[in-house]
Amino acid sequence: MVIQKAKGCYITDNKGTKYIDTTMGSGAQIIGHGNPLIKKIQRQIKRGTIYTIPNNHTNVVNELLSEINPHFHNEYIFCNSGTEANMRSIRLARAYTKRDIIGRFHGGWHGGLDGFIDGEGVPDKTNSLFKILPYNDDKCFDMITEDMAAVIIEPVQGSNPRTNIKSFLVKLRRRCDELGVLLIFDEVMTGFRIGKQGGQGLFDVIPDLITYGKVLGGGFPIGCVGGKSEIMKTKDVFYGGTFSANPLTMYGAKLILETIINKKYINYDQLNFVGKLFRDKLNEFFTIENKKIRVMGCGPINRLIFTDKFIRNRKDRDEFESQNQIDFFDRLLKNGVFVNTNGIFHFSMSHSEKIINKIIEKINEIFSSN
Ligand SMILES: Cc1ncc(COP(=O)(O)O)c(C=O)c1O
User: Fold this and answer.
1) Which domain holds residue 20?
2) Do residues 150 and 162 both lie within one domain?
3) Does the C-beta of 26 come closer than 6 Å to ligand 1?
4) What is the 3-class SS of 203-246, one letter each residue?
5) Per-residue pLDDT in tens (0 to 9) along the chain, 370 residues
């Protein structure tokens, strides 16, 4: 499938077929495609898209981020993707703690950096510096040890999005404090999406370092690292890059943060409402129809789980899920609804109640005819 254009919650492919988009740039387009902010960006294009030397928007973005996160240092590190932000965050954690090992959770996704992924081309030596921990499972706490620089976690994992994770995060915070291990929240997906303060705000757990991406770029590529002052001030850590903090992205970030602070085009109550509507109506339908399917989610981030059993994490999901998903997503596409291969539904401000009901109706049709 090749996309030609996008507007609101719709994408159109190169054959002219229009679909409801449920991925919205993997969660980045929280307002909708072709929104008013994107139009404003044209002003910056005329003034230049890349200087490499610092630009006047970056200070404003730092100020706006500090307004949202008063507990963090007032200067952030900017780069061009969530992967890069996480790479920089673990480098900073290693420099600050003078330790090498990084803990990461099974079922998590932090981008395509060696050590965050397994598979061909990643040296065993690199992987030996990462320890994989069980997510949402108290067994992980004894596996966190004093030789670790940091533990990185998505407060809500895209592979099994949920809201009932607070007590686990609180215990994780406590365990990291006991051992002087830094806690990094990867809020690339959750940041500015499940609320103005993302997962740290929703669960009231403050990490030592935080990473952002997606929504923060206002539709343009971004990565960002922030955190506690004493850590952010660590000397001699390298962060640079040709396109880092480029004026176009920083202008996009300034516009989206102003929008969030002024509640202009983004209303988190509305996003939570449509997410909950999607979960509640479908879960009721699947229960009545006795289908072994449920919807899990946190605010506007949702996914179908192909089992009716309670799943605690991705490991349970892999164990309990039946294998009929691929066919389902194909059929949904034929019915005019696009779902990304990662199975995550990211709703935006352009997904009205009517659109959500339409998606629900299409899903109902597919499973009623089964
Ligand atoms: C939680 C999380 N971290 C990191 C990344 C990687 O970000 P990017 O694709 O911008 O490199 C993603 C992307 O999906 C993500 O969801």
Assistant:
1) 3-34+265-368
2) yes
3) yes
4) HCCCCCEEEECHHHHCCCCCEEEEECHHHHCCCCCCCCCCCCCC
5) 999 999 999 999 999 999 999 999 999 999 999 999 998 999 999 999 999 999 999 999 999 999 999 999 999 999 999 999 999 999 999 999 999 999 999 999 999 999 999 889 999 999 999 999 999 999 999 999 999 999 999 999 999 999 999 999 999 999 999 999 999 999 999 999 999 999 999 999 999 999 999 999 999 999 999 999 999 999 999 999 999 999 999 999 999 999 999 999 999 999 999 999 999 999 999 999 999 999 999 999 999 999 999 999 999 999 999 765 668 899 999 999 999 988 999 999 999 999 999 999 999 999 886 6
Do 45 and 12 fall into the same domain?
no
CA-proximal residue: ligand 1, atom 7 (nearest): 82
Looking at the 3D structure of the chain, how many domains does it have? 2
DSSP letter, residue 33: B
| Inter-residue contact 191 to 212 (CB < 8 Å) | yes
Q: Are residues 249 and 329 in the same domain?
A: no
Q: Which residues of 48-73 are buried (b: 16+ CB within 10 A; e: fewer)?
A: eeeeeeebebbebbbebbbebbeebb
Please report, for the domain that includes residue 332, its CATH number: 3.90.1150.10
Residues 249 and 332 in one domain: no
SS3 content of the chain, % helix, strand, coil (to 5): 40, 15, 45
Is the CB of residue 82 below 6 angstroms from any atom belonging to ligand 1? yes
Whole-angstrom CA distances from 73 to 63, 69, 193, 286 are: 10, 9, 22, 47
- Measured in Å, residue 112 CA sits from the centre of ligand 1 at 8
CB atoms within 10 A of CB 295: 21
CA atoms within 13 A on the CB side of 33: 19
Pick the residue whose CA is nearest to atom 8 on ligand 1: 82
Whether the pTM exceeds 0.85: the reply is yes
Q: Which residues pair with 101 in a beta bridge?
A: 148
